[in-house]
Write a structure and sequence with these properties.
Length: 351
């Protein structure tokens, strides 16, 4: 069976999920190809997205909510991406002849629906990488969706998706998160890890200054944001603070952490839940990550830290607090380490 995975580099979560799916599909005997053929078409949207987040964060949140509640905007958006798909993707389809196309970004799903309409044996599926469901994910020709939480099934059915086409598999994470990591010796203190996603987004300087007051080892992971890493490294910090760039072995890093603080991206949420480490969400992208934040808190998978932050940190650092145990129990309940494999099993049923 031939699988084509289509993503877009608007944030890093979509690509990480795509890599996890490729791992699972390859081990299951699928022929796997990645499609980067829509990246150029999304160049303007990608630039506007990052520009809006940097300079007009709250306005972006308002625009996100407006687009989610406006059907006309969805119609125009879908038409635009289907036209792109009809122009760009016929040669891609003829070259790879996929049986299934998985889209980890809604723009890619809309684009490939143009090929789904032309080739009735083709199946397309949307893999959601957030805990929210934006209207742009709604594609009438999609054969399946995969989500993490039950609320997302309700979100999709309200848009018009048949309930039997939605699978609650979880968000796909890398296979390395399934491996057992030995615990630290009892006399060692795991660090507090500050995360801002793969792009190192957020008020690192302010959060680090507050964490330094707690007098506990802290590692600020800047991801691929080398400018942020350089800027933080130039400042004077207590010996307890370490500035790091991109971490290759994140599964081991998270499992040995005492606490995670940072931004509630969907893939990050799935990785932290599997790692069994308490989480304080301190900052978020307006729009989709506000919903991520609220649903994580509702399921006791995280707590807010935008107010009384250091108090929250001190409450969660001790290993025997009731708040910490409650959160770890919820993580054990909601962790989905085999999400990528389960997605492939469900897609085989479509064929």
């Amino acid at each position: 069976m031939r699988l084509l995975i289509a993503s877009l580099p608007i944030g890093t979560g979509h690509d990480i999920a795509a890599q996890a799916l490729a791992e699972a599909a390859y081990l299951d005997g699928w022929q796997v190809e990645f499609s980067h053929h829509l990246v150029a078409a999304a160049r303007v949207e990608t630039a506007l997205y990052f520009f809006s987040l940097r300079y007009f964060g709250q306005s972006y949140g308002s625009l996100f909510r407006w687009a989610d509640h406006t059907k006309f905007n969805w119609v125009q958006h879908r038409r635009h991406w289907r036209q792109i798909g009809a122009r760009v993707l016929p040669e891609v389809y003829d070259e790879y002849r996929p049986d299934v196309v998985i889209a980890t970004h809604p723009f890619a799903l809309s684009a490939w629906s143009a090929m789904r309409e032309r080739h009735r044996n083709l199946r397309i599926a949307g893999v959601l990488t957030d805990l929210s469901v934006h209207r742009f994910w709604y594609e009438p020709l999609s054969d399946a969706y995969t989500v993490w939480l039950p609320e997302q099934i309700e979100d999709l059915t309200r848009l018009g998706v048949l309930k039997q086409r939605v699978f609650t598999t979880g968000i796909p994470i890398r296979a390395s998160f399934q491996e057992t990591v030995p615990p630290l010796p009892i006399y060692d203190r795991g660090p507090i890890i500050l995360l801002g996603g793969g792009l190192g987004m957020g008020p690192y300087n302010r959060i680090l200054r507050e964490l330094a007051e707690v007098r506990w080892p802290v590692v600020a992971v800047c991801g691929h944001n080398e400018k942020l890493r350089w800027r933080l490294s130039e400042q004077k910090w207590p010996e307890t603070v370490t500035i790091a760039g991109y971490i290759e072995n994140m599964p081991v890093f998270l499992r040995h952490a005492q606490l995670v603080v940072g931004k509630p991206g969907g893939v990050t949420a799935a990785e932290v839940a599997q790692s069994g480490v308490p989480w304080i969400v301190t900052h978020w992208i307006p729009g989709q990550e506000e919903i991520n934040r609220d649903r994580l808190i509702e399921h006791n998978l995280a707590v807010r830290g935008d107010t009384h932050f250091t108090d929250r940190v001190r409450d969660l650092i001790p290993a025997d607090t009731s708040l910490r145990e409650k959160m770890l129990a919820s993580q054990r309940q909601w962790a989905r380490p085999m999400a990528a494999r389960d997605i492939m099993e469900n897609l085989k049923r479509l064929l």
